Amino acid sequence: MVDMDIIKTVWEGKLPICFNLSEKDTYSYEKLTPVYMLVPRVSYLPLFSEKLQNHFKRLINHQEEFKVWFSADKIPLKSHYPVGLLYDCASNQSLPWSITVHFSNFPSDKLIDLSKEENLESHFIYTVKEADYLKSRGLLIQSFQQKEMESIWAGLKTDNFEQFWSINRKLMDYEKIAHESNKAGGENPVVHNGFKCIPCRVYLPDRIGFVQKLIKSMHDNGDQYVLSDLIAILELPLDNVTNYKFIIHGIDVPSNSPLQWLSENFSYPDNFLHILVKTVIEQM
Question: Which of 182, 177, 205, 181 is nearest to 263 (CA)?
Fold first, then answer.
């Protein structure tokens, strides 16, 4: 069941970030003043490119069209990952988080070019549609009007919780998914109390990218899948669940949390659960 209080608390999570201009992009000997921002964890770094460009433009030694990209500890940051996920995956988690802004030498072999907002928007909407296909075979989002899709993006871009969730909540209504399926005369794509599948991506220590498979919300006997079931479902190379913790939105989530509930309340705006698995450091 959707709990809007929890969802809003998650949405309001922010990270203090210190943005520094790459020394390779400046011709000035003037001391470079960094930019400090409180950035929503659910947002994306390219959405702040214009502000950063306006701040650093008099120091930049390039006149051609920019391809802005970001790095932390000399590691390029994936612009299509939410900010909170990037931070949770970072090895250095001191705050404020130090990020370097680059205006040249775009590493096309390591990053998707989302320097233009329309490209980031297209990638985001595509991911939302993928998530809905997993949950409902696309039965809900296919009925959306163009203005509703635009409203979802605008709500995320402007950090407008009410605007975003007034539309996105429709994508969490599994009862309507069943209703729409019955109207279409097809096989009901969902179990009685959940989505057909859970949009979920798992990020492992020392592994590039994520692991993703079809994950049902319930067992055949009606019991709900819980977080710890991911170890067997995804065939993760983990020995004992007690040696690991599951991080979503920077929160250490109990391993017995139902995936259906998490999907409704802990998904990022792209409607995916992004779960980071970390080793538990034993206290001496």
Answer: 177
